[in-house]
Every structure is written in C-alpha cells, then in structure tokens.
Design a protein that fits this description.
Blueprint lengths: L6 H16 L2 H11 L3 E6 L5 E2 H12 L3 E11 L2 E10 L5 E11 L2 E9 L2
Parallel strand pairs: 1-6
Antiparallel strand pairs: 1-2, 3-4, 4-5, 5-6
Helix pairs in contact: 1-2
C-alpha cells in the first residue's frame, strides 16, 4: 500500500463534483486543467480511451442540468483514486451508478468510468 500523500487527487475529485453539482462550468473545467496540466484521457469502459477535453464538454452539455452527483465511497492510494458515485437523475427516483478511477502521473490524468444504468 502506498504511503504517498493522497490529498491533492482527493481534493480534485471532491472539487470537481462540487462544481458539477452547483453548475459552475468554469470552476469544473479549471479543476481539471489544474490537475491535468499535460494531458487528459477519458475512457468509458468498453469504448476506446480518448482525449478527455471534448468528452468533458459533451458530458457537461448533455448531463449537467439532469444529474446531481452523490459521493458514496472514495478509496485513495498515492496518485490514484477509486470512487463509487450515485448520479441522481433530477426529477426522478432513478440513478446511474458509477465506479470512477482517476490516475495522475506527471501532469497527465487518466479517468475510467464504469457505468451501471438504471
């Protein structure tokens, strides 16, 4: 088990979720730019990994007004975090469950989303 300081990546995960939930697009993207200073890669597991910036833009445009994220569990080790989030679909009693993996390495952030639809 890593004994490295997990505070930076944990703070990032909490910050980007808080920005998402309050609808602050500028702060949401700033959180990603501040941690992914070199490269951002995102993978919806089962689809190819790709440049994360257009994926985030699409995610925001398609889902931000419809989803509120509830953090259920975070496990951090070194520069990696695994999260279980419940993405509550506003106006319904449905939610999308996700397990999200964040890996930071020399200014590059790799994100993998495992998604369970309702």
């Amino acid at each position: 088990m890593s004994t490295e300081n997990t505070a930076p990546i944990e703070a990032f995960v909490h910050e980007q979720i808080a920005c998402w939930n309050r609808g602050d697009k500028e702060a949401f993207f700033a959180a990603y730019r501040n941690i992914a200073t070199d490269k951002l890669l995102i993978e919806y597991v089962g689809k190819p990994e790709a440049d994360g910036w257009p994926i985030l833009e699409d995610m925001w445009a398609q889902s931000q007004e419809k989803i509120e994220v509830e953090e259920l569990l975070m496990i951090a080790a070194g520069d990696e975090v695994a999260c279980h989030n419940r993405n509550n679909i506003l106006g319904t009693d449905q939610a999308i469950e996700t397990v999200e993996l964040y890996q930071l390495s020399s200014g590059s952030l790799r994100v993998r989303y495992f998604i369970k639809m309702p």
